[in-house]
Design brief:
Two copies of one chain form a homodimer. Chain A has 163 residues and is of the alpha+beta class. The first copy, chain A, has six helices and seven strands. The mean pLDDT of chain A is 94. Chains A and B meet through helix 1, strand 3, helix 4, strand 5 and strand 6 of A and helix 1, strand 3, helix 4, strand 5 and strand 6 of B. The structure holds a DNA duplex (17 and 17 nucleotides). Chains A, B: GO terms for molecular function: sequence-specific DNA binding. Chains A, B: This is Winged helix-turn-helix transcriptional regulator.
Chain lengths: 163, 163
Amino acid sequence: MKTNGVKLDERDLRIIEILQREGRLSKSELARRVNLSSTPCWERLRHLEDAGIIEGYEARVSLKAFGPLTQVVVTVELESHLPEEFARFEAAVQAHPEIYECDSLGGGIDYVMRVMARDLESYQAFMDRFLGSGLGIRRYFTYVVTKPVKHTPPPVTRIGGSG
Amino acid sequence: MKTNGVKLDERDLRIIEILQREGRLSKSELARRVNLSSTPCWERLRHLEDAGIIEGYEARVSLKAFGPLTQVVVTVELESHLPEEFARFEAAVQAHPEIYECDSLGGGIDYVMRVMARDLESYQAFMDRFLGSGLGIRRYFTYVVTKPVKHTPPPVTRIGGSG
DNA sequence: CCTGAAATCTATAGGTA
DNA sequence: TACCTATAGATTTCAGG
């Protein structure tokens, strides 16, 4: 598989797949799983990290354990599509920790975001403040997450590259 | 902070925050960061894991490194809202690795999903197959992700619980 | 890619407040 | 209960082949 000029073989892909699901696996156990001794496995992993292919590691926390929590998916359309207006909106997104995911989209919606709030009331209070801060939001729609159905790491090793 | 009967103090929350961003930090360095010696820090971490508060660890990979890749956000409405139909749809979601995130929503849309594909053509080919498999999808909308704006871990330690 | 070994980290035992 | 120090065993990292 080719990835922007860097070549990854089956072992590299296997290392990535394993760490996408077991990010804290020891390097020695990882080496065992890919049938290598620990040094070459370690060198491969270091390469994947240094090349930015593996960007970092995250603990996944149980949202239930922190309940009550309300997760909200929000779609946003801006009044204006000037680059300056996009930049202003995105800066505001960065500034608010309650908004923890946001992507720019093509196809009639400008952005989807995920917002974390204690409950619907505090979500609405947050959005009132957010909208009041003078971003040019034409309209937005609110969808409360009622149940997580599936959350897996992005299947890049199956889908991506030219392999 | 209270979390479903388990009490977490400031140090526990700090441990969680650190590992949400640096999931592979060594336990000894983690102990240093929270001003503890390694034993009590290790016990706290073990408790967080055993209690399911920390569910696991994931390597975060660069989607760019695997390019070309197309990420698509899809909203779905089903024909029928019978529990049986929901279950059938959700089982199909589980069965397709291309769909790597899916949440059930309230408010006019039944589901949002994220689909990973090589390009728009293979996305469309995938959706044609998916729709052809006889799930009762009334309609769906496709939004291509044009730019990731913000992706941080869910801010549970700031927002969640009663603290 | 391997072996081997020093530096570091992990997990546990035993003790103090 | 929550913390400490000490330490054996495991792991990580780096030579050298």
